[in-house]
C-alpha cells in the first residue's frame, strides 16, 4: 500500500497541537452525542409518546450502525482528502443534533440517531490514526491520548452536562446545545486541520488482506473481550452500586464523576506507555479489568470498598481505547484507516454484546453472574495478550501515514 508523507507533515507543522486538539474535540462531540440520551430517556420517551424501553433504541441503534458504517465510510471516501471527510461528518453531526432537537415523534428521532451512528463510525475510524500524521514520531503517544481523551472526557463532562441542561431547560435544549458545539468544532477544523491527502482510497480487497494479519486479529479479539466484559457490568453500574455496595442515590453522581476522572487519567497515562511498550501496556489493562470484578465480589460490598474498586476500574478502562488503538496502529502502520474502522466496528459490537449479555445474566443469575463472566472475559484477554508475538509493525515508524 502506498503512503503519503511529506505533504501532510509539512502542513501539520504549523499548528500540530491545535490540530490534534481539534480532532480530540471531534471525538468528544460525537461520543457525547452518542451517549446524550442516557440521562434523558424518560423525558424523551414521555414527550414522543414512547415507552422507556423502546427509547433504549436511541442508544443501541447508533452503536450498531457505527459498527457497520466505520468500514463503509472509509471505503466510500476513496482518495478524498481526509480533512474534507471530517468536515462533512461534523456537518452531518450538527444536522443530526438539530434534527433530534426538533424531532416531532420517535420515528424522526430514530432517523436522526441513525445519522449519529454514521458520523460516529466515520469520525472514529478516521481520527484514530491521525496522530501519526499530525505530530512528530516521538509525540504520537501523547497525541493519540489527546484524540482518545475526547472519548473519556465525554463520559465525565459531556453526558452529565447534557443531562443538567436537559433537566433545567428540557431535553431538546440539550441536543440544540450539542448542535451548537458541533458547529464550533467544525469551524475549528476549518481553521487548523491541515490537508490530509491519500495516495489512493481503501478498497474491500485491502480489508480482506488485512484480515489475514495475525497481530490485527489478536487486537480485534482483545477489543471484543475487554469491551464486552466491561459493558457487561458497567451498563448496570447503578444497581451494582445500589444493591451490591449499598451506595445511596445521592452518591451516584459524585462516584461516577470520580470514575470518569480516573478514566481520563488512565487514558493519558496509557497513551505514552502504549506507544513505547504496547503489549505490556495492554497486558496491564487486562490485569486491571480482571481484578475489577474480582474485587467487586470480595471488597466491593462496602461503601469504602466500592470507592476504591470504582477508581481502579476507571483507571484500567480509561486506557482501553488508546491502548488498543495503538496496538492497531503498530499492527498495520500502512493501513491505519482499515485497522481503525475494523476496531471501531468490533468496539461497538462489544458494547452491544456486553450490554445484552449483561442484561440476560442479571435477570437469570443476578449481579454475581455479570461479575464472574466479566472476569472470565478479562482473563481470556490477558491470556491472549500474553500469548501474542511481537507486533509485526512495531519496528516500523509510526510516522508512516495510512494511504487511506
Automatic annotation (TrEMBL):
Statement: the UniProt record of this protein carries the keyword S-adenosyl-L-methionine: no
CDD domains associated with the record: MFS_NepI_like
Keyword Membrane among record annotations: yes
Subcellular location per the Swiss-Prot or TrEMBL entry: Cell membrane
GO (cellular component) term, any one: plasma membrane
Membrane topology note: Multi-pass membrane protein
All copies of domain Major facilitator superfamily (MFS) profile, residue ranges: 17-393
Record key words, sorted: Cell membrane, Membrane, Transmembrane, Transmembrane helix
Protein origin, superkingdom: Bacteria
InterPro entries the record matches: MFS, MFS_dom, MFS_Efflux_Transporters, MFS_trans_sf
SUPFAM superfamilies: MFS general substrate transporter
Record field: transmembrane: 20-49, 55-77, 84-103, 115-135, 142-161, 173-198, 219-237, 249-269, 281-299, 305-328, 340-359, 371-391
Single GO MF annotation: transmembrane transporter activity
Coiled-coil annotated spans: none
Protein name as it appears in the record: Transporter
